[in-house]
Amino acid sequence: MNLIALAVPFFLLALTIELLLDKARGTGFYRLNDAINSLNAGTLNVTTGYFTRFLAILLWGLVLEHLAIAEIPLANFDLSATGLAWWALAIVLWDFCYYWNHRLGHEISILWAAHAVHHQSEEYNLSTALRQTSTGFLFSWVFYVPLFVLGFPVEVLVTANAINLIYQFWVHTRFVDKLGVLDRILVTPSNHRVHHAQNAAYIDKNYGGIFILWDRLFGTFQEELDDEPVIFGVRKPLASWNPFWANVQVYSYLWFDASRTRRWRDKLGIWFRRTGWRPDDVELEWPRTPSDLDRFEKYDPPIASGARDYLLIQFLLLVPVVLGIGVLFARDGAAAVVVPCLWLWSLLFSLGFISDGKPVAHAFELIRLTLITPIAAFASGLPFALPVSAGYALLSLYVFYLCIFRNNKQEVMAEISNSHEVRHDA
Ligand SMILES: [Zn+2]
Ligand SMILES: [Zn+2]
What we know:
about 65% helix; mainly alpha; about 425 residues
């Protein structure tokens, strides 16, 4: 049973309620471009996961088969008092491993390159929770190997992982204040807000998944302070709404330094050094100015109101497509969703371009609608793909005409008549 997939409708419902609350109270915790980008990064995480998640399961299976020192029978994990104690043990031990996975995910450069995606949002709401990396599959699995060596069954640990992830969803909100004694035991909205901060007082703190006790035990706990409002985001801003760039940004900086430094020791070592470390020669030749939080401004490129409307409509059309691909994957496996995922990723790419206000955005979107969509429909081999994609493309082209083309034309006409008026006045 895939608990995370079952939780998705509840995630979307909670997110909608939080969004309505934000609008009703005028708190300004949501921005359309930020929320869409976070959800697009989450979509990329889920859909790339169809092709990468097997790796961890495969490797954990090999560990269980060849390295386990004991075998804890799956039958132990029932709903009796003893069974629940076994479950509790698995969940607590998983959270302990998660703490170290998460902590080193911040402290070691190559692990940070994967995890940074979760922190790039400069807002903090339930959409931030779904903003997850697509490259975490490379190394994260290593941190849980000890539990497989102890002989816990894969099914139990996969469930413990799902419980851990689902728990963390609700802590990504600014609507819940401090919770007294709970803040001392569990990861709560208040102490996870600290974790998402870029303030010097808060950086590299509160790594726990379910229990904050690990941070208190290993000296990484920091309480949210009344006189230090949290500034959300990362020190080196993403400054883009493209979910693909979000996933490669930090790797690209590391690659830049590794390819330019002269020493081989640094070319290899930089990936495994403390996050932020740079080789002396590269730092000297290509210095980076530290960010000034006093002058911090959120990334918010202006785009035309029509482009915003188009973005929102395309995003709403994306939701059933993602759910449909999920159903197809569950029924027919990864091979069946290759083409639909490629098509979906082209959509995510395009939404990134439009949100960023890139000059190439409109041309790319037209190419996507008139070429990529029909090609994908043919290549997918799915019986319903052609009529669905034809309907989608025609509808999108019409919406594109209404929101972007006609809007742009009206704005240009308004500008021309304004300049005429100015000339007449002169
Ligand atoms: Zn983190
Ligand atoms: Zn988080």
